[in-house]
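Issue 218. Parser rejects a valid record. Input:
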Amino acid sequence: MSEKFDELVAVMARLRAPGGCPWDREQTYASLSQYLLEEAYETFDAIHEADATGDVTNLKEELGDLLLQVVFHATIGAERGEFDIDDVAAGVSQKLILRHPHVFGDAKLERAEDVLDNWDALKADERRASGKKEKERESILDEVPVHFPALLEGLKLTKKAAKVGFDWDSTDRIFDKLYEEVGELKQAIETRDAGEIGEELGDLLFVLVNLARHLEIEPETALKKTNRKFRSRFKYIEKELSRQGNSLESSTLEEMDALWNEAKSGGS
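Output the parser choked on:
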């Protein structure tokens, strides 16, 4: 490992040692799980900020926070005699070598799609060779974790189904389904049945996830960009209203909408 990485491992070990930090010493795999998830999301956001602005300052910091979580877990593992950071690094290195036979072996895989298909096949072979007991699955969709965020789960489910031919053959067909679902949502709204409205709205979102997949757009990323754009434009409204001596509460929708359009035309 590098000098700086070894220093990080040593710092974490010192924090966990007697006389170190009481909070750090109390942590377990389970107690840290929420922080790992939070740091992953913050890193995800920093990646798209860097992509949009070219500034990687936050990305560097968030990657460090994410790395800390890995080192933290590995430190706990070392204390318990279960594994250490070298085991983690060795495991992922071996996995990369085994799953890239077109780089480290004689296999010929020219397309990215072929690489992904081969990755899945090799992953299945490794599971069988390891002797790990396979979870009984009633469906290929059982391979998609139910705890994934909804957009990611929807994307993974439809990718699995598409691999065996259960898919639309064109985006035009998806748009037909999209318009159908919009009509059904409108009908549900007329009934004022909250349960039916929620179900139809979910169906509409699911079709949009499929459309994103066909267009090779990651829906979580697309929505994140739109969320960031909304933040920027709404902050412009707040700033301009404040400059004019007004507030959000005292302004009309027309006034706010005009400022929104200003922000939009200004590239926000």
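Fixed in the parser; the record now loads. The two ends are 43 Å apart (CA to CA).
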